[in-house]
């Protein structure tokens, strides 16, 4: 192949590469930018000719959104954080045993947990609501923490078990040579090395607690710890007409905390899933 042909091929490759990147960025960013634009418009300006910059910008939708979501956002933060912390407390020891120890029935027990990922969770709503009522967990934040473990525990054990299993075989014994007990080797060696997977599992668990609508709607009422996503649904269905500016403002508000959390933890997420 001649130098001229190579240069022409490289030129076409760069055009295709950058063209694809521009298309993907446009698909991701244009809907967000338009939603942000709508959130600053009065109702009379939402429909009609498409334009990107509001002609009569107003902050009223944002004031209403902050007022409506003040308490639900606090509830969402408590629910999501508690879900993530509880899932790590439950799954780290379990995944370590599955990944680093040998015991009879290990594979059967592990795959029995993983099969739970295939179960349609909507079938669990009625029995969970009934049991939560009996135990006084209905309409409480701890009740939601426990309910979300149904979603979180199987995939958390799956991710962490693979990470623990991939660590060097004799790393605990090497730590014990330098004076560690088996437990302190776990705390001082295994856990720090597994931090990318632990952060990834914590992040995904936080997202489940933050974004879930089904359990949040069925296990809470207006007098309880109603999270932000349920309040967003009420905003779309309440009243005779939908306030699209308010809807966009609330959607951006609810989506901002997970986005910031992702930006902070993305380096660890990449390391966890690349292993």
Task: Provide a compact summary of the structure.
InterPro entries: BP-dep_ABC_trans_perm (IPR050901), MetI-like (IPR000515), MetI-like_sf (IPR035906). With 275 residues, this protein is mainly alpha-helical. The chain is built from 11 helices and no strands.
Overview of the molecule:
This protein is mostly helical. The chain has two domains: 1-57, no CATH class; 60-273, MetI-like fold (Orthogonal Bundle), CATH 1.10.3720.10. Helices cover 75% and strands 0% of the residues. The chain contains eleven helices and no strands. It has helices at residues 3-38, 60-100, 106-115, 125-134, 141-166, 171-177, 182-193, 195-211, 214-218, 228-237, 244-274. Helix 2 crosses helix 10 (228-237), helix 6 crosses helix 7 (182-193) and helix 10 runs antiparallel to helix 11. The two termini are 39 Å apart.
Annotation field: number of helices: 11
Instruction: Give a count of the beta strands, DSSP E runs of length 2 or more.
Output: 0
Principal-axes geometry comes out as globular
**Low-pLDDT stretches:** none
Number of domains: 2
What radius of gyration results from the CA coordinates? 24 Å
CATH-derived architecture of the largest domain: Orthogonal Bundle
Strand content: under 5%
Distance between the termini: 39 Å
CATH topology of the largest domain: MetI-like fold
Helix and strand content put the structural class at mainly alpha
Helix content: over 70%
Family: Belongs to the binding-protein-dependent transport system permease family.
Keywords: Cell membrane, Membrane, Plasmid, Sugar transport, Transmembrane, Transmembrane helix, Transport
Domain ABC transmembrane type-1: 73-265
Main location: membrane
């Amino acid at each position: 192949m001649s130098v001229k042909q190579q240069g022409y091929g490289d030129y076409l490759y760069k055009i295709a590469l950058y063209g694809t990147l521009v298309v993907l960025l446009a698909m991701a960013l244009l809907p967000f930018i338009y939603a942000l634009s709508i959130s600053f418009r009065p109702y009379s300006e939402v429909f009609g000719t498409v334009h990107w910059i509001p002609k009569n910008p107003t902050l009223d939708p944002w004031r209403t959104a902050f007022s409506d979501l003040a308490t639900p956002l606090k509830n969402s933060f408590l629910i999501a954080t508690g879900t993530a912390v509880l899932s790590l407390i439950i799954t780290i020891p379990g995944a370590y045993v599955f990944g680093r120890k040998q015991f009879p029935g290990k594979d059967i027990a592990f795959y029995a947990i993983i099969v739970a990922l295939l179960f349609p969770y909507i079938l669990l709503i009625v029995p969970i609501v009934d049991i939560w009522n009996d135990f006084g967990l209905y309409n409480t934040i701890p009740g939601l923490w426990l309910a979300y473990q149904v979603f979180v525990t199987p995939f958390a054990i799956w991710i962490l078990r693979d990470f623990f299993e991939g660590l060097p075989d004799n790393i605990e014994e090497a730590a014990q040579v330098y004076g560690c007990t088996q437990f302190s080797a776990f705390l001082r060696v295994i856990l720090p090395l597994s931090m990318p997977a632990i952060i990834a599992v914590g992040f995904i668990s936080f997202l489940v607690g933050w974004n879930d609508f089904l359990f949040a709607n069925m296990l809470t009422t207006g007098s309880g710890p109603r999270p932000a996503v349920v309040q967003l649904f009420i905003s779309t269905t309440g009243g005779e007409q939908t306030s699209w500016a308010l809807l966009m403002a609330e959607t951006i508000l609810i989506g901002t905390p997970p986005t910031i959390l992702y930006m902070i933890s993305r380096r660890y997420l990449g390391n966890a899933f690349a292993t």
